[in-house]
Design brief:
The complex is a heterotrimer. By secondary structure, chain B is mainly α. Chain B contains 15 helices and no strands.
């Protein structure tokens, strides 16, 4: 990662979070950038070798796609390795609900990273309202990679499994598509490949292993995988680095270190100080994702709906 | 060579049932053709589903199961229920039960074939079905079900066959009909050189009895395992301790209703009043009364507790069933026609006529299917986290023509089986009347 | 409490020349982006302007790593450009020395590691360094130059009465460097965790207390890093060491337990499952065997 530029941008944003005006800029900037992101994924679907980009002078220029980032790079690992996981690791995620503004950068980054069509989300952002009079808040939901995973329990063919590093993954060359795991997961994390989905040209030759779920296969189940192929190379998942507000912290619980890319803190301290909790603790699933309560939010939840299309706003109208 | 000898009563039955074994009318051919057409349509739907993917169905990421699983649960439950009935009637030698055992076993057999087909339709990858065996995980209720269903299917097939051997021998040995040679060969093979010797009688009797004996615990286990497919998930409306028993009772009731239906049609069609007597309908009607009564009690018990305690997630599902804006109409009508009406009508002695009981059975057959559907879909449409999806098909499940076609094809298979069966052998077990005299 | 109230404000806001450009660009994109997108596509091929930033990391054993980041503004964002060749050189008033070439990685960074002894120094003892991307059909040329004064940090770990202290000494050209902020880290899987910062005294020394509750690897080892970060004169200077100051990680069980969620089922479950299948299938075998016998007996009689 180009640390200096990333830090620069994050510093700007952190400052931005302090002042309302600057913060509003950040919001607008990122909703703008998402348009660009869409163009990207469009080209990726076509499997074209070149991509049109906009210069600062306002010219459209064709650029070789290999000169752009976000090409999925994976190390070649054995099937066995993809099933046992990274030795000595225990991945954990902390999501700061106070910082989520539903910018949806995590969603689009995830879709791009995993070559998902625009209507398929492994990572979703829900609007939650705990009770009638409480304030709604945005709730990014990844797979919780539970330590007592109800989905893994019910799999009849060992297609979904839990690794030593805590990750719950799906081997889409094994999955028979019975969807039992989807009914067993109380968090609606899993999605099904209902129809054939286009595979990008550069992914067609990708050798499938249980770690990447790429290319996706029709008639099988898939879900958020915490990007273990990237973790293997010491790179953070894309949702973490894409978040403009640094809401996602990711790391190894064995090290007790989590990071959102720019801030790196001790996991235990973060959880202790901010009263971190796990969603649906009473279900006994023991998730590996912790949430920090949405106190002192940087925006009211409605704010991010202002630029959303009508149909999206309609979904939440009875929440306010 | 020794052959099976018939007494006068047996000869009379054979004469009554004879014509259907030999001839088929135009109407009959039309009916079979119609059913075959339905099955073909289902086949086309299945082809589309395999070729294009499950996107042709109405199932989506929340309601991942729909008509198929409802149909699966319905038919396999009916199969278990009727197998249990046949086994109990046989084992305890219930005097009035004899003509019913065969129909019962046949319903169990064909439902046991149709049901599992529908669970296969829920599977996204047919090409990987063998993984269920080569990569089986013993912890998964699906593995239990795969083993239990395949074991059960062998059991019910052997049991049904045991019940038929003697009649195959009768059909082999009779000179009353001019069968084509392939049928003679078929009967000859299926009769296993049964000659009616006391040792053979004893052997068959003993085998059938032990199959009947083991059938009961096996079916209870099978019921339990099936209900655990739902019960082992963290879903309100599924994860309830009464789910299994309630499902057992409902399934047996449905099975009884189906048997009554088949009996009524056969009796009308083939003039079997002498063998399928009014009292048979009366007894079966009373069993139906008791079972729907018990099912009514379980239903009340299940929903009143969740309504009264009103835990958030659970009562969301219950509210959907009770609200007339959601599934209220289906739920209340199914309960009225499937539970209350049969209880009230059958409770009155003078209404216990074959036709009324058969009509009520038809109501039960439909209502129980609706209840199966209402067990599956509302729970799936009510996840813990709000759905918040702009695509309506991801919020509410609506079956597509493919699912309709396949469900109808399933029903058509049931009908075509009972249409063809009387062509192959007599539905009234002739051998059971061997000790009767005029 | 030792830890500051908020981590968010802990890092100071650093001004970089990138920032105003970035802001300006973002604003431009905001107000004109859509209108520009609607323009007709130009026929001829344009070059995309690139921007280079060169930085240096002085590590241990007299090594220096040069990092050249090549970026272009794509879709309103500065993005690193992979696969471009960057040439590094050292240019003083009198001489020019080619240092080598490197290709940019996925993030657009080309890096080159060299021994400091091989570099030419100017009169003050500093290294004048240049990186150049010559441009190609798609991307325009760009370059950047920096002057780096050699410096090094030595890191020592001391333990006294169960108080653990890290002592770092910063020296440049044989003299201690005072009044400079040094940051101490423990290496993490993705990012290093900062455990403290201190300013060097007149001897060039800075020390921090090391926490006692950090988990380490199975041997308790931790990788400690001390860093002078992006200094105008020295660039980044760092040193690291491995020290068994962590709480040893309990070794992972080699096999997954027999659980409902693991690949191997609980034993009682497996046994029940097999027993039930054996009983029922055994019974089937018996019945089917008898049927065969029935046939055989009839044949004999």
């Amino acid at each position: 990662m180009s640390e200096s530029s990333e830090n620069g941008r994050r510093d700007f944003l952190r400052k931005g979070a302090l002042g309302v005006t600057l913060a509003a800029w950040g919001q607008l900037v990122f909703s703008c950038a998402s348009e660009g992101g869409h163009d990207h994924s469009h080209a990726a679907e076509e499997g074209a070798d070149t991509i049109k980009v906009l210069t600062p002078e306002g010219q459209l220029v064709e650029v070789d796609r290999s000169h752009l980032k976000h090409v999925h790079h994976t190390q070649d690992i054995t099937y066995e390795e993809s099933r046992t996981g990274l030795p000595g690791r225990k991945f954990v995620m902390v999501i700061d609900l106070a910082r989520c503004t539903n910018a949806r950068k995590c969603v689009t980054a995830c879709q791009k990273m995993h070559h998902l069509p625009p209507d398929k989300e492994w990572l979703t952002v829900k609007l939650m309202k705990d009770s009638e009079d409480s304030e709604p808040y945005w709730f990014p939901k990844t797979c919780f990679h539970c330590d007592n995973p109800p989905c893994v329990k019910v799999c009849p063919v060992d297609a979904t499994f839990k690794r030593q590093d805590g990750l719950v993954l799906i081997d889409n060359t094994r999955c028979i598509g019975c969807k039992f795991c989807m009914t067993a997961c109380p968090y609606s994390t899993r999605v099904f490949n209902w129809g054939e989905q286009g595979v990008p040209a550069d992914m067609k030759t990708h050798r499938a292993n249980a770690e990447t779920s790429i290319p996706g296969q029709v008639g099988t189940v898939e879900k958020c995988d915490f990007c273990p192929d990237m973790a293997r190379m010491g790179v953070l998942p894309d949702c973490v680095t894409a978040c403009p507000n640094g809401a996602f912290y990711f790391g190894d619980q064995n090290e007790d270190i989590v990071t959102n890319g720019s801030e790196t803190v001790r996991f235990s301290e973060l959880i202790a100080e901010r009263a971190g909790y796990r969603y649906g603790e009473e279900l006994g699933t023991e998730p590996r994702v912790y949430y920090l309560p949405p106190t002192d939010r940087i925006f009211p939840a409605e704010k991010s709906l202002e630029d959303m299309p009508e149909e999206t706003r309609k979904l939440y109208e009875d929440m306010f | 060579m020794k052959t099976v000898q018939l007494n006068k009563k047996q000869t009379a039955i054979l004469q009554t049932l004879g014509p259907q074994l030999e001839k088929s009318g135009a109407l009959y051919r039309l009916w079979v053709g119609f059913l075959l057409l339905l099955i073909l349509l289902g086949g086309y739907g299945l082809f589309r589903q395999i070729y294009i993917g499950h996107v042709v169905t109405g199932m989506r990421d929340h309601a991942v199961w729909g008509y198929y699983i409802a149909n699966f649960v319905y038919f396999i439950g009916v199969s278990y229920g009727t197998a249990m009935l046949a086994a109990i009637l046989y084992y305890f030698k219930v005097p009035w039960g004899r003509p019913i055992i065969r129909i019962s076993a046949l319903v169990a057999f064909i439902s046991g074939i149709i049901g599992p087909v529908f669970i296969l339709l829920c599977i996204g990858r047919f090409d990987r079905l063998h993984y269920l065996f080569i990569h089986a995980r013993v912890q998964s209720p699906i593995t239990w079900d795969v083993m239990v269903i395949s074991t059960y299917l062998v059991g019910i097939t052997v049991f049904t066959y045991l019940l038929l051997i003697k009649d195959f021998a009768i059909l082999r040995d009779t000179s009353m009909f001019e069968f084509p040679s392939w049928r003679k060969k078929l009967y000859n093979a299926l009769a296993l050189r049964y000659k009616g010797t006391p040792e053979q009688d004893e052997q068959i009797g003993h085998s059938t009895k032990s199959m009947a004996f083991i059938m009961v615990p096996k079916v209870i286990l099978a019921f339990a395992v099936l209900s655990w497919i739902f019960g082992m998930t963290l879903r309100p409306g599924w994860r309830s301790s009464i789910f299994g028993p309630s499902y057992v009772i409902a399934s047996i009731a449905t099975g009884i209703a189906l048997i009554i239906g088949v009996m009524w049609v056969y009796r009308k069609l083939y003039r079997l009043e002498e063998y399928l007597k009014d009292e048979h309908f009366r007894y079966m009607g009373l069993i139906l009364l008791a079972l729907v009564g018990a099912f009514g009690y379980f239903t009340l018990s299940e929903y009143i507790t969740s309504w009264y305690t009103s835990m958030t997630w659970e009562s969301k599902v219950t509210d959907k069933l009770l609200s007339f804006k959601e599934y209220g109409w289906a739920f209340h009508l199914a309960n009225f026609f499937g539970i209350i009406l049969p209880i009230v009508v059958i409770a009155i002695r003078r209404f216990r006529t074959p036709t009324i009981i058969a009509a009520l059975s038809l109501l039960v057959i439909v209502a129980m299917w609706v209840r199966r559907y209402l067990t599956v879909v509302p729970s799936l449409e009510t996840p813990l986290l709000p759905i918040q999806d702009a695509r309506p098909e991801y919020v509410h499940y609506t079956a597509t023509w493919v699912e309709w076609a396949l469900v109808l094809a399933g029903a058509a298979t049931f009908f075509i089986f009972f249409t063809l069966v009387p062509k192959l052998f007599n539905v009234i077990p002739i051998s059971d009347y061997e000790k009767e005299t005029n | 409490m030792e830890r500051p109230k908020s981590r968010y404000l802990q890092r100071s806001f650093r001004f970089r020349p990138v920032m105003p450009a970035l802001l300006l660009a973002l604003l431009l994109g905001l107000f004109s982006g859509n209108a520009l997108l609607a323009q007709e596509e130009p026929e001829e091929k344009e070059q995309l302007r690139t921007r280079m930033s060169l930085s240096a990391v002085q590590g241990s054993e007299d090594m220096i790593t040069l990092k050249a980041l090549v970026r272009a503004k794509i879709d309103d964002r500065y993005t690193g450009l992979p696969g471009l060749e960057v040439g590094f050189s050292s240019v003083t008033d009198s001489t020019e020395q080619e240092l080598g070439k490197a290709t940019t990685n996925q993030d657009g960074i080309a890096s080159l590691s060299l021994a400091k002894t091989k570099l030419l120094a100017d009169t003050s003892g500093a290294f004048p360094l240049t990186a150049l991307f010559e441009g190609n059909d798609e991307f325009g040329d760009s370059d950047d130059e920096i002057t780096i004064t050699p410096a090094a940090i030595t890191l020592e770990a001391m333990e006294e009465d169960s108080v653990r202290t890290l002592v770092a000494t910063l020296e440049s050209l044989g003299a201690p460097v005072p009044e400079t902020d040094l940051y101490f880290y423990v290496k993490g899987m993705f990012r290093p965790l900062r455990i403290g910062e201190a300013t060097t005294d007149e001897d060039g020394m800075a020390s921090v207390e090391f926490p006692t509750d950090l988990p380490g690897d199975p041997g308790g080892n931790l990788n400690i890093i001390v860093r002078l970060e992006e200094d105008d004169a020295f660039g980044t200077v760092e040193a690291n060491m491995s020290q068994a100051w962590g709480i040893p990680l309990e070794t992972m069980p080699g096999q997954t337990p027999r659980e409902l969620w693991s690949p191997s089922p609980p034993l009682w479950l497996l046994l029940t499952f097999i027993a039930l299948l054996l009983i029922i299938w055994g019974h089937y075998m018996e019945v089917i065997y008898k049927l065969f016998k029935l046939r055989k007996n009839a044949a004999e009689s």
